[in-house]
Amino acid sequence: MSHKCEDEHDESPEFGIQYSLYTKIDTENVECLNETVDGSGKDVFKAWENRHDFEKFVESDCDQELLFNIPFTGTVKLKGLIIIGGEEDTHPSRMKLFKNRPKLTFDDAQGCCDQEFELHPDNTGTLEYNTKLVVLSSTDPVDGPQ
């Protein structure tokens, strides 16, 4: 078993590739509610080696909330998240996770979530938010649009 100190960050491509869920995201069927530009929510999911490419981004059209429905192509274990964003005024401050809830709406999201995070600005992708493995150990794929 290996242990990694909080101050140590593995920036090697192998680290990101080994643990990235990017290849398991059904990007064609990702939905983002409240996006200013239709389809821009799909573009924020990037391969590890492209994580610092800020040309494509998503902004909310009417308020400060976005809601992503992210289907996977297979069963995944979500162990952690990295949220790369802008400065304090453009970086999300909170995030809620909902497990296996296809076609989630803002009304649905007012209910109980599986996990909630207070986020901190991070332009480099060095902050990782650990998920509750017991809760998010088997996030199942969605069988096509519903």
UniProtKB/TrEMBL annotation:
PANTHER family, sorted: AD039 HT014 THIOREDOXIN FAMILY TRP26, PITH DOMAIN-CONTAINING PROTEIN 1
Species of the source: Cordylochernes scorpioides
Superkingdom field: Eukaryota
Protein name: PITHD1
Domain PITH: 10-146
Protein family according to the UniProt entry: Belongs to the PITHD1 family.
